[in-house]
Amino acid sequence: MYPDLQKELATFERRTPKSAEAHKKNLKRIPLGVASNYRAYDPYPIFVKEGRGSKFRDLDGNEYIDHNLCFGALMAGHCHPAVMKAVEKRLSTGTMFGMPHDLEWELAEEVCNRFPVEMVRFGNSGTEATMHAVRLARAATGRDKVLKFEGAYHGLHDTALVSVKPHAPEFGDVNAPTSVPAGLGVPKATIANVPVATFNDLRSVELRFKQNQGEIAAIILEPILMNVGLCMPQPGFLEGLRDIATKNGALLIFDEVKTGAKLGWGGASEYFGVKPDMICLAKSIGGGLPLAAFGTHKSVMDLISQHKVFHGGTYNTNPVSMAAGLATFREVLTRENYAHVDKLSKKLTEGYRKIVAKSGLQAYVASAGANGALMFYPQEIRNYRDWTTIDVDLWRHYWFAMVNRGVMAQPYWWDEQWTISVQHTEADIDKHLAAFSDIASSLTKAQQERMAVAVH
Ligand SMILES: Cc1ncc(COP(=O)(O)O)c(C=O)c1O
Q1: Which residue among 255, 277, 391, 428 is the active-site one?
Q2: Active-site annotation holds for 2
């Protein structure tokens, strides 16, 4: 570990002793000391005390401008007043019934008016949304295989846990990536049913369809690959997938768990002008409460209506989450608020670019809608394998140095990206840029020294 990173880590530990202590306690009873593996990192994760608007405070009282926002699930920001009002009102009239109620119709209308789907079912997490979408696609086509892209994350069910972060040499040839389980416990039979292709490479997709003729039920993808920082689809890629899916009688599933709310008013299909057959939504549509949805054509949903495909869930459409979702669609994810976020995103992106250019740092800034990331690469990445070449220590230097200056620039992990909420302000962006400006030259120095060592 090089000295500037060491210095930032020492500062981090000096500022956050209560988090260290809380983590130690958690470790006794909770694996990794966290409730989701993504929350664990060295030396220990920051423990939160409270959040409001665009900021949160840790157990030691340090305040941060929050661009983590629960891994992008809080485009609303913390405690958005409209969401809080709707939730508080609903809390006193019963939180769960397991019976239908009047908010279901209203939120279903909101989803179907905004996204190109005719019918929708609700759930609680992105994992549920993609799991049910995939099952429906299998049922609709009578086929078992689902094509996914290497490096893509779609949640925690078996089909999704294939080639999420595979390593060399198991991941094989980039033109025909090997399907690799993302951990133990994923059945071999599942792996065999998940052919993998390379993002931004239509030939690798065509090859898979050729090798599995009449067997692939669906292509599932994030329209922007956001499990590798931020990797844009190259022009023609989404259109090409649309054609390949149609030609082969497979369904095209857009996993819009992240992009659905954060790219713009109508999500990725509006942003890119490509219509999928199915859409999966979660994260930011709940405004801070657990809420998910999957939607598709009526003809596909008829499989549920006819009791041919099973879908259920005790917590589905609990009135508190539904009230939050309704307030989010109507009062948070408005065209006006998207314009505000776009303005802030432009300011942040351009600000970063200027600082990068001035400092000589070898990096670029990718951004789309409310999302963006500082990408430590000499040129734009196009797929998962490009992403793996990152200098992890340099990225850690960036993240901890920003945190030490009161800015959580994005969730921890170099496969994530920042989110700008509707409650962020110009002053937040100014502070974010000031922090980055403060550390840029030390990042550049470290990078140049490390590159010089690598050459020799
Ligand atoms: C694109 C995408 N799909 C699905 C999921 C899974 O969502 P959840 O964590 O709510 O199960 C995530 C979570 O990060 C995601 O980013």
Answers
A1: 255
A2: no
Per DSSP, the three-state class of 128 is helix
154 pocket-lining for ligand 1 (C-beta < 6 Å): yes
**Is 255 noted as a catalytic residue in this protein?**
yes
> What is the Cα–Cα distance from 258 to 271, expressed in whole angstroms?
13
Residue 319 token pair: 């009135």
191-211 pLDDT, tens per residue? 999 999 999 999 999 999 999
pTM: 0.97
220: Cβ below 6 Å to ligand 1?
no
Residue 283 Cα to ligand 1 middle (Å): 7
CA dihedral 357, 360, 366, 369 (to 10 degrees): -40
Tens of pLDDT, residue by residue over 131-170, are: 999 999 999 999 999 999 999 999 999 999 999 999 999 9
Q: Report the pLDDT value the prediction gives residue 215, as an integer from 0 to 100.
A: 98
* pLDDT confidence of residue 454: 81
For residue 256 and ligand 1, the question of a CB distance below 6 A is answered with no
pLDDT, position 410: 98
The domain ranges of the chain are 3-75+334-455, 81-332
CATH classification for the domain delimited by 3-75+334-455, as one of 3.30.930.10, 3.40.50.300, 3.90.1150.10, 1.20.120.1630: 3.90.1150.10
Question: 1 or 52, which is more confident?
Answer: 52
Beta bridge partners of 181: 162
Q: For the purposes of burial, counting CB atoms within 10 Å of the CB of 329, is it exposed (0-12), middle (13-18) or buried (19 or more)?
A: buried
The residue to mutate among 146, 154, 220, 225, having the most atoms of ligand 1 within 8 angstroms of its beta carbon, is: 154
CATH architecture label of 81-332: 3-Layer(aba) Sandwich (3.40)
**What local confidence, expressed as pLDDT, does residue 1 receive?**
83
Compute, in angstroms, the gap from residue 242 CA to the centroid of ligand 1.
Answer: 22
Question: What is the chain's alpha carbon radius of gyration, rounded to the nearest angstrom?
Answer: 22
- Looking at residue 412, its pLDDT comes to 98
Q: Is the CB of 421 under 6 A from ligand 1?
A: no
Tokens of 53: 């608007």
Query: Is the CB of 72 inside a 6 Å radius of any atom of ligand 1?
Result: no
For this structure, is 283 an active site residue? Answer: yes
